[in-house]
Design a protein that fits this description.
Layout: H1 3-15, H2 19-25, E1 26-34, E2 39-42, H3 44-53, E3 59-68, E4 71-79, E5 85-95, E6 98-108
Helix pairs in contact: 2-3
């Protein structure tokens, strides 16, 4: 899959989050890591149960996808509602045509310091 195809595929998947649909595209030995919280989920069955138990799943806006040698690098924004928004970067590794490993990094927005305003412009 090239970058445009991967972007389209992920945009469709993320706009209709479904634990069942995602389960089907994950490898049997799937692992998801979240280094900032020190958590790991092993096996697609546990990931499906995690998703089904999630109290209020975020909406996810996909910014871009980079495809290289069996890996997808995803950049997006998670909106949990109530003003809680996080930037997310996910490194997705494929094996046998399925998602094998998924490492997610989350970052909350912060106010930029005034001292550097003369060199930067604000993004939307």
């Amino acid at each position: 899959m090239d970058e445009q195809q991967a972007q389209h595929f992920l945009a469709e998947l993320l706009s209709n989050l479904s634990a069942e649909q995602e389960y089907e595209i994950r490898h049997d030995k799937y692992t998801m890591k979240m280094p900032q919280s020190g958590e790991r989920i092993r096996r697609r069955e546990k990931m499906r149960a995690f998703q089904e138990a999630y109290p209020h799943p975020p909406s996810i806006q996909l910014r871009r996808v980079v495809v290289r040698d069996g890996q997808w690098i995803l950049e997006g924004v998670n909106d949990y509602g109530g003003g809680q928004v996080s930037n997310v970067v996910a490194i997705i590794e494929l094996k046998d045509g399925k998602i094998f490993r998924d490492t997610r990094y989350y970052a909350e927005s912060f106010e930029a310091p005034e001292w550097r305003a003369q060199w930067v412009e604000q993004m939307e």
